[in-house]
Design goal:
This protein is an alpha+beta fold. Helices cover about 35% and strands about 30% of the residues.
C-alpha cells in the first residue's frame, strides 16, 4: 500500500500546471442555471468551464450528465 501511495505522490508531483488543469476534464461536469429564450434553463459545463449543452430543466441536465457517464460536481 505504501508503494502505491508513493507512486501516486510522485506522479502528482511531476504534473505540469497544464496537466493538472486537465485532470477530470472528460469525467466531471457541473450544472449551472442560465437564461435561455426568455426562460430559465440549465447549462451543463465540462470541468474546465466549457459549456456542453443547455437543457430546459434541472432534472434533464442531471440526466444528461449521468447518461454520459460523467461525475456531477457541486459548486458553491
Amino acid at each position: 500500500m505504501l508503494i502505491k501511495n508513493d507512486e501516486e505522490r510522485l506522479f502528482l508531483e511531476q504534473l505540469t500546471h497544464e496537466d493538472f488543469l486537465h485532470i477530470g476534464l472528460n469525467q466531471v461536469a457541473y450544472v449551472k442555471p442560465t437564461k435561455g429564450a426568455n426562460r430559465q434553463s440549465y447549462a451543463v459545463h465540462a470541468a474546465d468551464g466549457t459549456q456542453i449543452s443547455v437543457m430546459e430543466s434541472y432534472d434533464t441536465a442531471i440526466a444528461a450528465v449521468r447518461f454520459n457517464d460523467l461525475h456531477l460536481a457541486t459548486l458553491q
